[in-house]
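Example 3.2
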Amino acid sequence: MHRMRDILKILALGVLLVACARLQGEARGDLIRARSTRSFPSIAGDIVGSQTYTYDPVTRTGTFEVVNAPHLIKIGPGADGMVPLEPDQRGSLYQSLLMKLDRNGRLVEGPGNRFEIRGTVVIGEKTYEGLLLSGRPIAFGADSGSGDSRAAQAFDLDVKITGGELAEAFGPEAYLRINARSKSTFNGVFDVDFSSDRPQTSLRAVPPDLVTPVPEPTALVMLLTTGAGAIALKLRSRLRRNMGVPRGAEPHPGAAQRSSRGSSTISHPGLSRPEATPTAFPGPHSRFAARVRGSDPAIRQFP
């Protein structure tokens, strides 16, 4: 009976650990940086565009997309640090984001996740034209706002910079904040479609000391794991006493053991866990290459 109770205690502890880990993984509704620091360079965008999210109940994933027009780059504080962005020689001036999310609003790694800015900007005596920035989203957060305050709704993400004319100026990582401005239908969940018009965006370089770190286990998970280890050792000692095995009689784990039927040696090969391979999702068709409506310099207005 004592042995059965000990086994049930171990099973109950295992279920508790799994449940806590699952709750931790499904947490949502938090921005990556609720209070982002001011840094340069930074690029502001709005004017035209849209934010859409299309959920697929079959795959339980959704496609999050933002397209708007970047209009201003700030290379430093003060009015003299603001430089307007213009269309490139092909008439393109846009900022685009495309990424895959699961039903809990977590980023799903895949080749279709991408970010880019195209246009022209003259800084000093140098002209930067064409693909100004390209990158890959590496973290995503969301805040649905409080009550009916749609203006408080926001999304943010960390972007790994992979190329572009301004890549050297921004460094290895950038932070993008997206604010819903009008006609938002986001209610805090990611298993339904939602959208908004004219999203306001702010892209800024991330200082080296704020680059996204490797996630650490929460204090709750660490506490439960430590407690599980202690309880397992205690139960193991109790089981050994119940079975009449004196302390210190167990051979070293690496030593060879003799069979009760003869003198043949039984070896235990080591176990290895293969590295997990992330699921790759084919990149959905994107309209990023299309010219953004309203980006004609004749009708664009700068703040």
